[in-house]
Design goal:
There is one protein chain. By secondary structure, this protein is of the alpha/beta class. It has 2 domains: about 1-235 and about 410-425, Rossmann fold (3-Layer(aba) Sandwich), CATH 3.40.50.2000; about 250-410, Rossmann fold. The chain has 15 helices and 13 strands. The strands form 2 sheets. It has a 7-stranded parallel beta sheet, with helices on both faces. A 6-stranded parallel beta sheet has the order 10-9-8-11-12-13, with helices on both faces.
């Protein structure tokens, strides 16, 4: 069976699908992963076939609007980033839509991510089986509000009704900016009539369009009001390469003292990271803890003189690194949240936007994150006490360790593979 996976976005939006691709390949299937060209060498390095989709997310996040927003999380920076995205959105979505056709032309089954949701319509156009594979809970439920909002457990029936409505609003926030482009693609490329104003959701809520959710059941238990074709599998994890060896400097740093706190904002790291780097180093000095800064896509603390208790690396596999750390400070992306939770270490989450506040407040409600600090409020005065608690509060450390044990018992990719195979057999 030829499985074609289509996804778009930052590395955190691609890595879980690479993990799924590897699992499908190991189960004996032919697999192709279609995404942005900058990820090609990384994907092919795992022995997975690659096909291109339009766009360069690293270039998007290096543009002035994104740089202003990731630097300090300010509302002014967010506005500039929003304007930038709006200007580029039409060309980007049109390019992805055009590339979906050659990327999936010989697929026996198409597995699509949230950004590539239009690929679900290939079921209607070609009759090919399709599976939605999502990193955030997007199916309406009364158990919690839509991603992008804070986590809160419902208390009353009115709470549940409000949560369901928030998901419906969230669906429209995804659909309406893309509606004109998707309907033009349907007419000119697929030969299909346009979708209605409210979008494709009602016609795709059935067993022909199953959904797989890549997050831990111990973090988001499957809501009872979800239909039986919606499945929570557990996080899809990409193990460190078998031949991975840390740099000599990193190995020495880890061996020379107590486990450090890892600072890792991934793709949400500012290109100009001097100010944020000084913030985290000042906070760590106040808290009296060692720090390992992972720069990700930015330049966090790149030009800052480092004391002996701090070290900087460009990139280190999360599943290898996080268990060796005392705590993790991160941005709250789904994949990083899952890696830290599986490692069984406390977290401090500094969200910027998207789904990050949802994950931040959920982990705080589970007692494994000591604080949610918006990026614009991240200062030495706010971060230092959170670092102290993450390193020294045994209640938090015990809660994180217990959650990690439960999550490590899950095999998310194995569950996803079995669901994909069952759907393909159904036809």
């Amino acid at each position: 069976m030829h499985c074609v996976i289509v996804t778009a976005g930052s590395r955190g939006d691609v890595q879980p699908y690479l993990a799924l691709a590897v699992a499908l390949r190991d189960a004996g299937h032919r697999v192709t992963l279609a995404t942005h060209t900058p990820f090609r060498a990384w994907i092919e390095g795992y022995g997975i076939a690659f096909r291109p989709l339009a766009g360069d997310p690293q270039a998007v996040l290096a543009a002035p609007g994104a740089r202003a927003w990731t630097a300090d999380g300010s509302r002014a920076g967010l506005l500039r980033f929003g304007v930038q995205l709006w200007r580029e959105f039409g060309g980007l979505i049109a390019g992805i839509l055009d590339d979906l056709i050659p990327a999936t032309h010989d697929a026996d089954i198409v597995i699509w991510s949230a950004v590539c949701m239009a690929a679900a319509q290939l079921r209607e156009a070609r009759g090919v089986p399709v599976v939605g594979a999502l990193l955030q809970p997007l199916t309406p439920t009364g158990d919690f509000a839509a991603v992008g909002l804070s986590w809160r457990t419902p208390v009353t029936a009115d709470d549940r009704a409000k949560f369901v409505r928030s998901h419906v609003v969230g669906e429209q926030l995804i659909w309406q900016p893309a509606r004109r482009h998707v309907n033009r693609w349907r007419r000119t490329t697929l030969g299909l009539p346009p979708l209605p104003l409210a979008g494709p959701y009602s016609r795709q809520r059935n067993a022909d369009h199953p959904l797989l959710y890549a997050f831990g059941k111990a973090v988001i238990p499957r809501p009872a009001d979800w239909p039986d074709w919606v499945h929570v599998t557990g996080w899809w994890t990409l193990p460190a390469p078998a031949d991975y060896t840390p740099s000599a400097a990193l190995a020495r740093f880890l061996d020379d003292g107590a486990p450090p706190v890892c600072i890792n904002f991934g793709s949400m790291t500012p290109v100009d990271g001097a100010r944020l780097g000084r913030t985290v180093l000042d906070a760590a000095e106040r808290a009296g803890c060692r720090v390992l800064v992972v720069q990700g896509w930015g330049d966090l603390a790149g030009d800052t003189p480092l004391p002996a208790w701090a070290h900087v690396e460009r990139d280190v596999p999360h599943d290898w690194l996080f268990p060796r750390c005392a705590a993790v400070v991160h941005h709250g992306g789904s994949g990083t949240t899952g890696a830290a939770a599986r490692a069984g270490v406390p977290t401090i989450i500094a969200p910027l936007g998207f789904d990050q506040r949802f994950w931040a407040t959920r982990m705080e409600s589970l007692g494994t994150s000591v604080a949610t600090i918006d990026r614009r409020l991240l200062t030495p005065a706010t971060l230092a006490p959170a670092l102290e608690r993450a390193v020294r509060d045994m209640r938090v450390r015990d809660a994180a360790a217990r959650l990690g044990e439960r999550l490590r018992a899950e095999s998310g990719t194995a569950g996803a593979v079995s669901r994909i195979e069952a759907h393909a057999a159904r036809g």
